[in-house]
Amino acid sequence: MHRAARTVLLLSAIHSRLPAASASAVHEVPFEIASNKAFVQVTVNGSAPQWFILDSGCAGGSVIARECADRLGIARGRATERHLGAGSGVSVGVSTAADAVLGLGEDTVGVASPRVFPLAHVARFEGRRVDGLVGEDFLLRHVVEIDYAHRRLRIRDPRGFTPPRGATVVPIALEHGLAVVGGAIALPGGGSIPCRFVIDTGVRATVILYRPFAIAHHLLDAPGDLASAVVGGGAGGETIGDVGRLAWLALGEARFERPTAVYSRDTVGVFASEDPDGIIGGELLRRCRVTFDYPHRRLMLERHRGPGAFEYDMSGLFLTAEGDRFDTVMVYGVTSGTPAAEAGVRPGDAILAIDGARAPDLTLERARAMLRTPGAHRLELERGNERREIRIEARPLV
Predict the structure, then answer these.
(1) Which end of the chain, N or C, is less surrounded by CB atoms within 10 Å?
(2) What is the pTM (predicted TM-score) of this model?
(3) From the CB of residue 197, how many other CB atoms can be counted at a distance below 10 Å?
């Protein structure tokens, strides 16, 4: 039997054993934000709460991190090496556990033969522990509202649900478990290009345009763009791309002015795909209250007074967090021709302080935010056994 069919059968069986939900009932679940992603507390087979990312890009069912499975004593079969998600093509060992029950708020979701694979290499890009991913199976059975401004999930029964007044309703197609919407982009030089986007709450960026699309529309090596930068990291390893700025981006009737954009240079993984054209991530989504209604194939966007203009890192650094508590901010990448490169910062440097802020106050999230601000910044670095202070003059790079 196909994996998706088995998942639906298991969901139906578990759902039949749960108390009937009122069509008007709303269950609220708080979440925390890191790297523009919603981290929610989830129980696994009745365990203590674990931290999972609510990931609309996680097709094929929710995932339990291998590290979490080890900690909870979850048995699984033999692992096979596979390439997963976006990134440079790093392979990971993927195994399958016995059917699991995940608890989120007042709901219980059964996952047929959940995948188990390591996420510790992902956690360093997030700056915190990642115990798993809540994905397609959860979204298929609920209307899920992500209120980024108030850090609340609102989970509703799809029966009788109507879109909020004033919301922009965008039709979605579910393709291989992913929500795909129609939209468009406009380049600074003029002219618009229709696009098909995956809506992915598990991606940090504003929008990433896949390499074949970027090549077809001559987006790589454009004057004034940040070239060949490390722009993220996921299950498949690091991702590389050019960073520029669009005149506007539209999702249905919702239009966003002057968003930053990544033009992927990945030759393997998701961002090297021919179809669809790109992926919308949390930097854009968190400017809205976002409601996924998979049962009725629609997405709802409600703009709010959130972050202001779209900005990107102004230092030229790509940072990660290391250590058991993720309290050591590390330089993972330095883009040439940027303030950090000009000041002599190197990959592998540990950042002990920025403008006097140091661990534990200097989290990965705070360090990234500080370096999105133009002006002089004083960094205290550790390189091997040597400590040094440098000054960088951060400036808009796109």
Answers:
(1) N
(2) 0.90
(3) 26
DSSP 325-371: TS-EEEEEEE-TTSHHHHHT--TT-EEEEETTEETTT--HHHHHHHT
User: Omega of the bond prior to 360 within 30 degrees of 0, cis?
Assistant: yes
Peptide bond into 19 cis (omega under 30): no
DSSP-assigned letter for residue 359: T
What is the C-alpha separation between 38 and 58, in angstroms, rounded? 13
In 3-state terms, what secondary structure has residue 10? helix
Task: Please state the length of the chain.
Answer: 398
Q: Which whole-number Å values give the CA distances from 175 to 136, 139, 145, 196, in the listed order? A: 11, 14, 21, 11
Task: List 301's β-bridge partners, or say none.
Answer: 168, 290
288: which 2 tokens? 């809205």
Planar angle of CA 276, 282, 288, nearest 5 degrees: 105
Q: Rounded to an integer, what distance in angstroms lies between the CA atom of residue 176 and that of residue 244?
A: 29
Q: In the structure encoding, which two tokens stand for residue 24, read together? A: 């008007």
CA nearest neighbour of 123 among 209, 205, 37, 48: 37
Chain centroid offset of residue 27 CA: 23
Closest of 134, 142, 143 to residue 291, by C-alpha: 143
331-334 contacts, C-beta under 8 A, 24 or more apart: 331/381, 332/230, 332/233, 332/238, 333/229, 333/230, 333/238
The one-digit pLDDT tens for each residue of the chain (398 residues) are 334 434 333 333 334 333 334 456 889 999 999 999 999 999 999 999 999 999 999 998 899 999 999 999 999 988 888 766 666 556 778 999 888 889 988 777 778 788 999 999 889 999 999 999 999 999 999 999 999 999 999 999 999 899 999 999 999 999 999 999 999 999 988 889 999 999 999 999 999 999 999 999 999 999 889 999 999 876 667 889 999 999 999 999 999 999 999 999 999 888 999 999 999 999 999 999 999 999 999 999 999 876 789 999 999 999 999 999 999 999 999 999 999 999 999 999 999 999 999 989 999 999 999 999 999 999 999 999 999 999 999 999 99
Is the CB of residue 66 less than 8 Å from the CB of residue 73?
no
